[in-house]
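Table S2 (continued). Query chain:
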Amino acid sequence: MNKNFIHFSRRGLMLVLSSPSGAGKTTISRAMTSRDLNLTMSISATTRPMRPGEIDGKDYYFVDKKKFQLMISRGELLEYANVFGNLYGTPKKPVEDALSKGQDVLFDIDWQGTQQLADNENAKKDLVSVFILPPSTIELENRLRARAQDPDIIVRQRMAKATDEMSHYREYKYVIVNDDIEVSVRSVEKILAAERISIERQTGLHEFVQNLRKSN
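Corresponding output:
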């Protein structure tokens, strides 16, 4: 290795994946974090009931509405939204701690939360947003029913809301149609790889180039 090599730091980024429920963002998120050691999943706080198999502090921070409102009033959330009567939000401190160490954070949030991040002067510089579309509405409904997590009335509500959610695709930097999960995962990996080497995120790049110039 060249003895004159100078390692420079990189600030982490916030990789946001959004989609209508059932389009595949959670499956893609799990694949990404299992393959990339420098990508950690943001854990949201929520007031919705815990589902079978979920673990508090791993899948979500399950809190009551009083505590959630307290987190809002204290400015402890980067974003929050009301989804089907339940509140969801992203605690600020663990995300900022990760980014400052050069670790990337993956968000599985909806368009409302993404818009709040984009409108936040401190957060938007770290934001990389990707919207996941289903190949068809028929396939979307099939996926929702196949996972058998929600009663029929909730499935119908999610399908009704999907039309509005998909209309927000233009607010994202990247859009992927999830027809094949492996192809979609590889596409997100390529996006992440490119964004990691953007000039604005390589915080020590200027000093590195200056040293290269001095060595000539």
